[in-house]
């Protein structure tokens, strides 16, 4: 299950923390939910929904049935941190901005939702202003004001009440000293962080310039919450809707139903078509049962979008008729191996490059689950769906993708280790695929004399105590460590900052960056967060990607792929790159 | 009899207290011995994104800095008297028995368990009726004609029933009778309708889990009943009963079966008590939102308060079932006198 959690907060220094986490997805597509169906003819063929709307229709009515193999982390906009949840939440909540409900890369585009337009930055990009549309109401008919948005963000500050949420706003806004959220410090004035000069204007004050703050404005925490209806940790039981649907019944741990919200005014909302009459969502449903029910037509969507389980994989791929009704998108998650320059002899760039050249990429791909269920072989950091991605490969692994042993040996010689060296590779004990990938590396690197010893660690303490703790890693010679990352939104900052900025590394451990220490990279990041021109900023993310690869601090494994099966009953099915899964705003019922 | 029941009830309370101490120690003492700090325990409540200061505050608020005996006292007090919980804007009382709050949902565990109890009870009672009738009847008939075709076939099927795990028979039954439209006889997995809402739908949704679960248990009961009946029917008092001219039906049911029932009642009490504590595999296979599914989800998510709640509830049912079984001995076997 792909959780996109934010890496822990930062040390307050320079860039503060936060950007991405491990999991992922965001986005959405179709310009008008339900379907940008516009035009394109549906084709029942493999991967059709990656580039077009399958079963386009504007027909209203019907109930869409969804199931979640696990529990929702939370339905509360302040407390949810899964890509699928951010995809789904647009049905009952409206944030300042949102990802366009459109096919493929078009879904990466930010469009206004509550706001009239994208944000207006000050010259130094430290202040961002949004105007909120008039005529938007809560499900009880109360008009939405900027103060409701401000309150929603303030309450998300309290991580004891909302532990599942992210900390972007906590870390980047200029909160007054001692502020702990509206429950614990209700009397502290927060105008230094957020101002609401009138009911339709909201102004954010940041501690540092941030050129891409618009991505923050699409976060669910900006979905307004009426203060008098806020029940804190219990608000998840009945979130007050601003979207086209509201909660009819909600049994946490079992499921919930959404019905139409008669206070939603389509005139204020060009993004949503709201085709179905409602949604039935079951949670904690056996994952194999979910696959079987989708294949039999009893269910429409596996809501987490992680793809079919291994039990159904063969059935889908071996039957051409079933396969024609499936899609295999690449997500914004990268599985990789950190190459720790603090552990000799990997402090020598040539030894790190030897690791890159000696890697058998095919074996790695198989270890992660193969081409369909595992991922696409990665040659750099930024996944293809993220603007700034560029195809390059600084360490060509030979024509068969199984490694260039000659170049690896040359690099070892240049490193002063012509016969290879010994080091350890860390992985999370609970993750069999990480173990398989570590074993694949062990075999591949052994071909040039690099002897790896596998070191499993419990995942709960992996970053805090072991692989991510600089002192422990050095002392125990953890030269390599399996790692993974997924951006919270399709943007270079969201993907790269937490894994390549050396300033997020903490001596006490806990950071997801456990190997990249390059002042040049840090400088480029500072440059990028101040750059307000999108193209120039994306070029900087590309440059950062290349610099890290030149340094050979990261050995990319695969960009994750999932196998999704389309519903037999749904219309307007398409994959939105921002979320890496089907767009839930667009779907209708046949 | 009254004294016996009171003594047993006191003993049951002692058992549950011991279980609660052991459970608490497993979740709070053992981690400490393994190096966990109050902050690392508290971090489960505040998530990965909390700052060190927030984690420290949470550890203090949750009382993880207190001595373990004080923490257990607070836990036990919650079960007996209830506890207060801060939801953010308000502090609310969690009435007894308050098992604490889920790491994941931040909601009290006890209402969740209560909510799931009807599902598990529906499953357990329905399956128990089927397996008792089918298992005991098959066992009796087999014992009356040992070595016959019926006996051999029944015992062969019983062997299969005992051998095949639920996650196999369950999935096969779903593929054949639920997902496959032509033979569909029941709703897809994951469906449950309360009996009070619609009895027919309730039974329709549960028929497949009932049969699958009953198949497993009926097999064992058939073999147990057959063995018991074979032994009983060779007893002297059976011959005496026949000599007195009693009908074969009376001989078999009133004298034979009653004599063979004691071990069946014993095992049934244990089985049924355990099932009420959660039919983990059946509920997981059919995605039934009962206590078993709740337990497995809690374990998967390492949601300790939920796991503790389920453990104590399961222990309660096992203790209760055993108590009832002991009382039933006196009814089933006149030679037993309680006191």
Task: Walk me through what this model shows.
The complex is a heterodimer of chains A (590) and B (339). In chain A, the strands form seven sheets. In chain A, strands 14-18-13-17-15-16 form a six-stranded mixed sheet, sandwiched between helices. In chain A, strands 8-9-10-1-11 form a five-stranded mixed sheet, covered by helices on one side. Chain A contains 16 helices and 23 strands. By secondary structure, chain A is of the alpha+beta class. Chain A starts with 62 loop residues before the first strand and ends with a strand. Mean pLDDT of chain A is 89; it is low at 1-41. The longest helix of chain B has 36 residues, at 109-144. With 339 residues, chain B is an all-alpha fold. Chain B has a two-stranded antiparallel ribbon. The interface between A and B is large, with 45 and 40 residues.
What's the arrangement of secondary structure elements?
The complex is a heterodimer of chains A (590) and B (339).
Chain A (H helix, E strand, L loop, with lengths): L62 E6 L14 H7 L7 E3 L10 E3 L7 E2 L5 E5 L14 H10 L12 H5 L21 E5 L2 E5 L8 H4 L27 E7 L3 E6 L17 E6 L3 H10 L4 E2 L7 H9 L1 H4 L2 E2 L2 E10 L9 H10 L2 H7 L2 H4 L1 E3 L27 H11 L6 E7 L3 H15 L4 E7 L12 H6 L4 E7 L5 H9 L18 H12 L3 H18 L2 E8 L2 E2 L4 E2 L3 E2 L4 E2 L5 E2 L1
Parallel strand pairs in A: 1-10, 1-11, 15-16, 15-17
Antiparallel strand pairs in A: 2-3, 4-5, 5-7, 6-7, 8-9, 9-10, 12-19, 13-17, 13-18, 14-18, 20-23, 21-22
Chain B lengths: L1 H32 L4 H9 L5 H10 L6 H14 L1 E4 L4 E4 L14 H36 L4 H15 L2 H14 L19 H34 L3 H8 L4 H29 L3 H6 L5 H10 L3 H29 L7
Antiparallel strand pairs in B: 1-2
């Amino acid at each position: 299950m792909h959780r996109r959690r934010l890496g822990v907060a930062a040390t307050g220094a320079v860039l503060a923390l936060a950007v991405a986490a491990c999991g992922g997805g965001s986005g959405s597509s179709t310009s008008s939910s339900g379907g940008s169906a516009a035009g394109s003819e549906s084709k029942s063929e493999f991967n059709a929904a990656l580039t077009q709307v399958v079963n386009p229709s504007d027909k209203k009515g019907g109930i869409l049935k969804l199931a979640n193999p696990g529990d929702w982390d939370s339905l509360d906009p302040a407390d949810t941190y899964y890509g699928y949840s951010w995809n789904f939440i647009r049905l009952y909540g409206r944030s300042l901005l949102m990802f366009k409900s459109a096919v493929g890369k078009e879904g990466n585009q930010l469009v206004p939702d509550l706001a009239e337009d994208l944000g207006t930055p000050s010259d130094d990009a430290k202040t961002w202003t949004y105007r909120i549309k008039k005529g938007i109401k809560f499900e009880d008919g109360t008009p939405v004001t900027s103060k409701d948005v401000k309150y929603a963000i303030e309450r998300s500050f309290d991580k004891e009440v909302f532990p599942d949420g992210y900390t972007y706003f906590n870390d980047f806004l200029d909160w007054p000293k001692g502020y702990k959220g509206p429950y614990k410090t209700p009397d502290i004035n927060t105008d230094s962080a957020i101002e609401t000069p009138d009911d339709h204007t909201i102004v954010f004050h940041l501690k540092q310039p941030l050129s891409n703050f618009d991505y923050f404005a699409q976060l669910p925490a900006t979905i307004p919450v009426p203060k008098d209806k806020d029940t804190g940790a219990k608000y998840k039981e009945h979130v007050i809707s601003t979207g086209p649907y509201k909660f009819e019944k909600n049994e946490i741990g079992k499921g919930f139903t959404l019905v139409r919200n008669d206070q939603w005014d389509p005139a204020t909302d060009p993004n949503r078509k709201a085709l179905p009459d409602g949604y039935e969502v079951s949670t904690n449903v056996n994952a194999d049962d979910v696959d079987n029910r989708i294949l039999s037509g009893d269910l429409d969507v596996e809501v987490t979008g992680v793809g079919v389980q291994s039990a159904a994989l063969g059935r889908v791929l071996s039957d051409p008729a079933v396969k024609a009704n499936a899609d295999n998108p690449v997500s914004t998650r990268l599985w990789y191996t950190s190459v720790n320059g603090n552990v000799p002899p990997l402090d020598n760039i040539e030894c790190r490059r030897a690791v890159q050249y000696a890697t058998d990429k095919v074996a790695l791909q198989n270890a992660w689950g193969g081409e369909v269920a595992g991922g696409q072989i990665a040659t750099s950091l930024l996944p293809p769906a993220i603007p700034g991605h560029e195809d390059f490969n600084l360490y060509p692994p030979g024509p068969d993708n199984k490694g260039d042993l000659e170049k690896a040996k040359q690099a070892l010689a240049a490193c002063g280790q012509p016969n290879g060296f010994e080091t350890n590779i860390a992985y999370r004990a609970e993750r069999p695929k990480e173990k398989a990938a570590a074993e694949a590396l062990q075999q591949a690197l052994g071909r040039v004399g690099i002897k790896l010893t596998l070191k499993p660690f419990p995942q709960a303490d992996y970053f805090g105590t072991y692989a991510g703790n600089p002192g422990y890693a050095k002392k125990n010679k953890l030269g390599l460590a399996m790692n993974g990352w997924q951006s919270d939104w399709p943007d270079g900052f969201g993907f790269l900052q937490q894994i390549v900025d050396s300033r997020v590394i903490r001596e006490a451990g806990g950071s997801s960056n456990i190997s990249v220490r390059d002042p040049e990279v840090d400088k480029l990041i500072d440059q990028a967060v101040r750059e307000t021109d999108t193209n120039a900023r994306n070029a900087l993310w590309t440059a950062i990607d290349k610099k890290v690869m030149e340094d050979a601090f990261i050995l990319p494994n695969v960009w994750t792929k999932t196998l999704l099966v389309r519903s037999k009953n749904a219309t307007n099915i398409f994959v939105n790159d921002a979320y890496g899964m089907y767009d839930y705003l667009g779907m209708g019922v046949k | 009899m009254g004294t016996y029941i009171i003594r047993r009830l006191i003993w049951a309370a002692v058992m549950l207290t011991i279980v609660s101490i052991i459970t608490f120690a497993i979740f709070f003492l053992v981690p400490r011995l393994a190096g966990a700090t109050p902050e690392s325990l508290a971090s489960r409540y505040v998530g990965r994104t909390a700052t060190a200061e927030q984690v420290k505050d949470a550890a203090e608020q949750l009382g993880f800095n207190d001595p373990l005996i004080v923490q257990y006292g607070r836990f036990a007090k919650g079960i007996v008297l209830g506890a207060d919980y801060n939801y953010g804007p308000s502090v609310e009382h969690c009435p007894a028995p308050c098992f604490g709050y889920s790491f994941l949902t931040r909601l009290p565990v006890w209402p969740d368990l209560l909510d799931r109890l009807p599902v598990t009870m529906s499953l357990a009672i329905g399956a128990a009726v089927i397996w008792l009738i089918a298992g005991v009847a098959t066992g009796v008939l087999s014992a009356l004609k040992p070595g016959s075709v019926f006996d051999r076939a029944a015992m062969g099927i019983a062997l299969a029933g005992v051998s095949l795990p639920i996650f196999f028979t369950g999935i096969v039954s779903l593929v054949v009778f639920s997902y496959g439209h032509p033979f569909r006889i029941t709703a897809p997995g994951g469906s449950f309708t309360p009996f009070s809402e619609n009895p027919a739908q309730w039974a329709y949704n549960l028929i497949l889990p009932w049969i699958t679960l009953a198949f497993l248990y009926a097999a064992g009961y058939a073999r147990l009943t057959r063995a018991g009946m074979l032994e009983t029917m060779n007893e002297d008092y059976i011959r005496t009963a026949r000599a007195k001219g009693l009908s074969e039906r009376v001989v078999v049911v009133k004298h034979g079966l009653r004599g063979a029932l004691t071990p069946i009642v014993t095992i049934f009490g244990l089985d049924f008590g355990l099932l009420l504590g959660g039919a983990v595999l059946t509920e997981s296979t059919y995605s039934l939102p009962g206590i078993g599914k709740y337990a497995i989800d809690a374990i998967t998510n390492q949601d300790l308060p939920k796991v503790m709640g389920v453990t104590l509830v399961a222990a309660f049912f096992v203790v209760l079932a055993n108590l009832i079984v002991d009382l039933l001995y006196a009814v089933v076997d006149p030679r037993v006198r309680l006191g």
